[in-house]
Amino acid sequence: MARRAPRVATLTLVLAACGAPAAPGEAPELARTVWDEQADALDLQIESAQAFADASPQDWTRRESLVLLRLERAHLQGSLDDYEAAELALDKAFRVAPEGSGPVLAAAEVDLALHRFTLARERAESLLARPLLSDRDAARIRHVRVLASAELGDTELAVTLATEGTTEDPTPQSWADLALAARAAGDAKTWAAAIDQADALCACPQTRFAAWTAWQRGLADLDADRPSEALAHFRIADAHHPGDWVIEEHLAETLVLTGSPEEAVAIYEAILAERDAPVVWWGLAKAREAMRMPAASAHLRAAQGFDAQLARYPDAMAGHALAFFAEQGPVSRAVELARRDAALRPTADNLTRLADLESLL
User: Fold this and answer.
1) Four-residue CA torsion sign, 233, 229, 146, 319
2) DSSP per position, 309-344
3) Cα(12)–Cα(66) distance, rounded to whole angstroms?
4) Where are the alpha helices (DSSP H) in the chain?
């Protein structure tokens, strides 16, 4: 069975097949979760930041704060609308900023999230010569450089930068960056040690970070064909951050792999009651197939959803849609996406996958 490409994901469980929230009235009344409370709090922050920025339209720093909040909401909700809103706020900030200034670091972080890895790294590195960088901004710059380098196939640089970070700034974030760089480099030993250290430094149950580390362990288990272990880790992640649909989607996927498609269908349908995410429709189709139930309509909804996302953000969504079209066809569409993804992320795995798909034409 085709798997989505391994993701060098940030700490925010980002763009795994973004879906729009369901229209009002479509979803049943559900018990509120930690995720719901965080989403509500973030919405209030965005409302306040928007009013603050509008009150002083020539102050680009106020727009930068709005960009970062919109980016955070995009990560939490998985909504392309929020990425568009972040880019709009960026554009307004740069228009009023004096030449040579502006929210360059925030722009690099948006570029990273939208898979513009070369531009993200260039922007981050352009800030290195600036005097008086705060420790926080230095860590943010390094984070962008590590993840962009890993995605560009420059894993040696990614590991070097991340290792420097654990020495200079030994935080859960810096150890998480090393884990991601090591995973991209295929260094399982360093990955495991870094994830363990990130967990040890965090010591914060019931948080997104604790959920993220458990989620990362589950992804590594799936890559190593250990679905039972992955299931255990995804259940831990779900317990740390209840209501997080990205975690729930991986949990459901793994339930199908371990022979419990009925439970998976219930999870997928609960997610779809609140958002229209193509990766969830695809998962539902496979779960229904495992139960020998009709799945054509779910496959169609998945294809339509991936097409719609690709029309909006072709670079960001190419890798996520690729696995679907590689499995479902047409092969020509999969090759088109593989070429785009390999151009964006010229890693050995992506180039090999491209060659394999081109051989099927």
Assistant:
1) negative
2) HHHH-HHHHHHHHHHHHHHHS-HHHHHHHHHHHHHH
3) 17
4) 34-55, 60-77, 80-96, 104-113, 117-126, 135-151, 155-168, 172-185, 188-202, 208-223, 227-240, 245-257, 261-272, 278-290, 296-312, 314-328, 331-344, 348-358
Quick one: tokens of 109? Answer: 């972080």
Write the DSSP symbol of residue 56.
S
pTM: 0.88
Of the candidates 262, 270, 306, the residue with the CA atom closest to the CA atom of residue 288: 262
In this prediction, residue 39 carries a pLDDT of 87
Class of 263-361 in CATH: mainly alpha
Neighbours of 242 (CB within 10 A): 17
The helix (run of H) or strand (run of E) holding residue 275 is strand 275-276
Cα(308)–Cα(320) distance, rounded to whole angstroms? 13
Burial degree of 326 (CB within 10 A; 0-12, 13-18, 19+): buried
Map out the domains of the chain as residue ranges: 11-20+34-113, 116-202, 204-258, 263-361
Distance CA 64, CA 92 (A): 9
* pLDDT tens track for 46-82: 999 999 999 999 999 999 999 999 999 998 888 899 9
User: DSSP state, 20?
Assistant: E
What pLDDT, in 10s, does the model give residues 304-320? 999 999 999 999 999 98
Residue type, position 166, single letter = T
Distance CA 215, CA 198 (A): 13
Are 96 and 58 in contact by the 8 Å Cβ rule? The answer is: yes
For residue 28, the 8-state DSSP code is: P
Closest CA to 236 of 207, 272, 274, 264: 207
- CA 361 to CA 357: how far, in whole Å? 7
- Element of type H or E holding 106: helix 104-113
